[in-house]
Amino acid sequence: MWVLCLGFSSMVLAQEPVDLEMANRIRQEAFHRSQVMDILGHLTEDIGPRLTNSPQMAKANAWTRGKFNDWGLANVHDEAFDDFGRGWEFSEASVDLLAPRAMPLYALPKAWTPGTKGPVEGEAMRVTIKSRKDLDQYKGKLAGRILLLDDARAYKPGIEADSQRHGEASLAELQTFTLPKGANRDRAELIKRYTERQELARAVNEFFVAEGVLATIGISGRDNGIIRVGGGGSRRAGESAGVPELAMMAEHYNPLVRALERKQTVKLRADVKARFTDEANQPGHNTLAEIPGSGSKAGEVVMLGAHLDSWHAGTGASDNGAGVAVMMEAMRILKAVGAKPKRTIRVGLWSGEEQGLIGSRAYVAKHFAAYPDPADPAQKALPSSLREPTGALQKKPGYERFSAYFNMDNGSGRFRGIYAQENAAAMPIFKAWLEPFHDVGATTVTSRNTGSTDHVSFDAVGLPGFQFIQDRLDYSTRVHHSNMDTLDHADADDLKQAAAVVAFFAWQAAQREEKLPRKPLAKD
Question: Are residues 502 and 427 in the same domain?
Answer without folding.
Answer: yes
